Amino acid sequence: MEHYFINKSHKTSDFFSFNADICGIKFTFNSCEGIFSKSHIDLGSLLLIKTVSKMDIYGEGLDLCCGYGVIGIALAKLKNLKIDMCDINETAVQLAKENKIINNVTNGIVKVSDGLLSFNKLYDFIVSNPPIKVGKSVTFRLLNEAYKSLTDGGKLIIVIRKDKGMESVKKYLQSLGADVSIIAKDKGYYILETIKII
Predict the structure, then answer these.
(1) What are the C-alpha distances in Å from 82 to residues 85, 124, 195?
(2) Where are the strands (E) in 50-178, listed by range?
(3) pTM above 0.85, yes or no
(4) pLDDT tens digit sequence for 98-124
């Protein structure tokens, strides 16, 4: 998980763009070598986008561990929502900023942050394809910070593979006193919705 822990310099040749169709809308994304799912939208993120796009969701949101911004940008455009984005990786954040401009998404801020440490606000919803490979201690910290950063009744919606610890993540979220449910699944990927109990 070099992308999560290390900010490194890149050659000009490391950067490129690709096009994607998400829910019938055309997007273009700038990307880079060493970034998660660098040249295509991974199945987990795509399932998360498609699931949330069908939900009755409102207010202000956050794309946690946003990478180059696929989830936040797609949902902001598809749902006309204000969505902030953050990632620990400086290159990913710069790409996310560029991709907002490319795809005509004007709402929300994008900034470098280790989880929600650089934020001091509450969100109505938080979406994430969390970096499970960094280990449980980091993953659980990120999820705990996200849960604490929800408004009462707010939703944390994440995607996780069943064989990458879905059950343990679900149990952890329940241990926070949350209402947790599986709202979608496909090809081994599960979407967990965690609602902050008032």
Answers:
(1) 10, 11, 19
(2) 60-64, 82-87, 110-112, 123-128, 150-161
(3) yes
(4) 999 999 999 999 999 999 988 889 999
